[in-house]
Write a structure and sequence with these properties.
- This protein has 656 residues and is α+β, with helices and mostly antiparallel strands.
- It has a domain of 225 residues: Alpha/Beta hydrolase fold, catalytic domain (Rossmann fold, 3-Layer(aba) Sandwich).
- The protein has eleven helices and 37 strands.
- It has an eight-stranded mixed sheet, with helices on both faces.
- It is globular.
- The two termini are 39 Å apart.
Length: 656
């Protein structure tokens, strides 16, 4: 079993961190010959460790693993297996501990809902897995016919009078008649006794055309409520019995409750101001003026105490992210841990309340994904699992950050992955823009980029304007720039690599998924003369169709309408940047790949692009992934996607 605890790293990683760091940098003996490239399926397989969590007492690790084509939930207690069970056919999204004897598994499924604005929805559920006899197992809300078997938001786990209680958003049902029916789609807040799976209403749903969010304190009571009008964008934050803490107006609804402040005496919330800047505020629960915190600090991740909901730290965005913890002892420990893993992307995953044990995931050069259990007091780190054990370190293509300037002078960067064993000179290249577009790529192992690199291609993942990971101004620089500056940012990266002599610009293809799929289509229709082929996976082909579909499926939400127009620009100009409308100008072969169960970018987007290319008599292929969603959650179809994409690229842009 791959997840079983292994022996500690030589000399104990943390105690010998200077030796480890020096060994990574120092020249050694002549490198042995490269091992043979792994089969393509080794990259397309789901990670052998998908997620893991550490029990509060630090004695147990729960994980979602992938073995023999099957997802399994495995729990190790003091290195002994206490649970090894199939997770079934649903798509597992996360695993966590509710207490030392109860595991919660979050999954999702694509389901049809008749009578709603969309034909299919991706619905989340939470499964209770007790490790001691006497506890109820199964889906949260399974014992109450008046609540739909789906969880809509997580509001914490609390210990109340010695019992473990989970707080979940849920959908109330009308149970009169032969079939239960949804009353509406607005969430009610429920408190669920996780031993009995009995639920009670903790807070009522919002009024029609309103959205509501809550903070639950350590005593299990609703301490703060956020209410937003979807019609006007008016928002207010209240404590129970109506005392108001803050209010404002945001037409796009970009207001959110974050957590309690230190000690639970304040509430932390975030808003996006008129200039598109995210701002965080802290307001006393007893009333008083809100003060701005973390000014001019981009937050990548927040760390929250699981027993209280209090904010205990955060990780910043940027080229050199920092992890900041409130407790000085915790800060000292995490600084030493990250120093020991210098040279790789290291992520704090989970920790015990006293920070004596920490779960860390690493990835990067010579590391295709490793999970470590760190004993802070013993200054020891043990690898507990490998995501892709079939990909040896010498077959992980070199990963680096390349900076460049866009045509208008804006500073850019992107991630360059090089083929193992090949000189970084005049290489064939794949441009691989990310999805989102509000996302960003990091200098870490990317299974898709590494798959192409293993076949002899340099791969460049540009963080074009509109990407996250930098400033809010950089993210909003992409507003209204689909198919325009966001598109030329990508080809400007190609030009920089060609200027440095790393790639041959005449041997380039563009490949991407979601927004990246849109960019791939735009690269051979809105732009010409740049790419020898394009691969679009679940890509947008028609902005007007996307806009109208999203608005209809939201129930004509005014907040979503405002947000989409802010991001995409004036709807009158959508046809000007829709690849479907320019299919006749396609100057390279196109491969379209789309999952039939995609609830984010509809399958119809690839259908209309295929029809337009066919009508224009342009070369294209169309691959349908039956039963697949937007995230390529199924291993079988993920591997098929990868094999089809690589085949198509090798046909139209051979690496040799």
């Amino acid at each position: 079993m791959r997840l079983k605890l292994r022996s500690a790293l030589p000399a104990a990683l943390l105690i010998a961190e200077s030796i480890v760091t020096a060994a990574m940098a120092a020249p050694g003996p002549a490198s042995p010959p490269l091992s043979p490239p792994p089969p393509l399926d080794a990259y397309g397989e789901l990670p052998q460790v998908e997620d893991a969590a550490l029990s509060p007492d630090g004695t147990s690790i729960a994980s979602v693993t992938h073995m023999g084509g099957e997802r399994r939930v495995i729990v190790l207690r003091n290195n002994e297996v206490v649970l090894n069970a199939s997770s079934g056919t649903t798509k597992v999204r996360a695993i966590e501990w509710a207490d030392n004897d109860t595991v919660l598994l979050t999954n999702s499924a694509t389901v049809p809902l008749f009578g709603f604005t969309a034909a299919k929805y991706e619905m989340n559920g939470t499964i209770i897995l007790p490790l001691k006899p006497g506890g109820e197992s199964g889906m949260v809300f399974a014992k109450n016919q008046a609540i739909a078997k789906t969880t809509r938001g997580r509001y914490g786990i609390r210990t109340i009078d010695g019992r473990t209680v989970g707080y979940f958003g849920g959908i109330a049902l009308d149970v009169e008649g032969s079939q239960p029916r949804w009353r509406h789609g607005r969430s009610t807040l429920y408190a669920v006794d996780l031993k009995t799976n009995r639920a009670r209403v903790l807070a009522q749903p919002p009024a029609e055309n309103h959205y509501r969010d809550w903070l639950v304190d350590r005593s299990g009571n609703v301490a703060v409520t956020l209410d937003i009008s979807e019609a006007t964008g008016t928002w207010k934050i209240n404590v129970p019995r109506g005392a108001e803490l803050a209010r404002g107006v945001d037409p796009t609804g970009n207001v959110s409750l974050i957590a309690f402040g230190k000690g639970g005496a304040t509430a932390v919330y975030a808003i996006e101001d008129e200039d598109g800047e995210s701002r965080w505020f802290e307001v006393p629960l007893a009333g008083g003026e809100a003060r701005e915190i973390l000014y001019d600090t981009g937050i990548e991740r927040l760390f929250v105490d699981r027993s209280s909901g209090d904010m205990v730290g955060y990780r910043t965005q940027g080229e050199t992210p920092q992890t900041v913890m409130d407790d000085p002892a915790h800060q000292s420990a995490i600084t030493r841990i990250f120093k020991a893993f210098s040279g790789r992307e290291a992520h704090l995953i989970d920790w015990t309340p006293d920070f004596a044990k920490v779960l860390v995931r690493t990835t990067g050069n010579k590391d295709s994904g490793t999970w470590y259990l760190v004993d802070v007091r013993a200054k020891r780190a043990d690898p507990i699992g490998y995501e892709r054990a079939d990909i040896p370190p010498d077959q992980v293509g070199s990963i680096s950050v390349v900076g460049y300037k866009a045509q208008d002078g804006l500073d850019m960067d992107g991630i360059l992955t090089l083929p193992p064993g090949r000189e970084a000179k005049n290489l064939p290249v794949i441009l691989l823009p990310h999805g989102g577009p509000a996302a960003h790529d990091k200098a870490e192992f990317d299974w898709w980029a590494q798959a192409f690199a293993s076949r002899g291609y340099a791969v460049f993942q540009p963080n074009f304007r509109g990407s996250t990971g930098r400033t809010d101004a950089f993210r909003h620089a992409g507003d209204g720039q689909w198919g325009r500056k966001m598109q030329t940012d990508i080809s400007d990266g190609l030009a920089e690599l060609a200027k440095q002599g790393i790639v041959d610009p005449k041997r380039a293809c563009i490949v991407g998924a979601s927004y990246g799929g849109y960019a791939a289509l735009a690269g051979v229709t809105l732009q010409q003369g740049l790419y020898r082929c394009a691969v679009s996976v679940a890509g947008v082909a028609d902005l007007r169709l996307m806009y109208s579909t999203d608005i209809r499926e939201s129930g004509d939400s005014k907040m979503l309408t405002k947000a989409l127009r802010e991001q995409l620009g004036d709807p009158k100009a959508y046809d000007d940047v829709s690849p479907r409308r320019f299919a006749a100008r396609a100057d390279a072969p196109v491969l379209l790949i789309h999952g039939k169960d995609d609830t984010v970018v509809g399958y119809k987007q690839s259908q209309v692009m295929a029809d337009a290319l066919k009508d224009a008599r342009k070369p294209y292929e169309f691959v349908t992934l039956a039963g697949e969603d937007h995230w390529l959650s199924r291993e079988e179809t993920r591997k098929r996607m990868l094999s089809e994409a690589v085949r198509f690229v090798e046909k139209n842009n051979p690496a040799e």
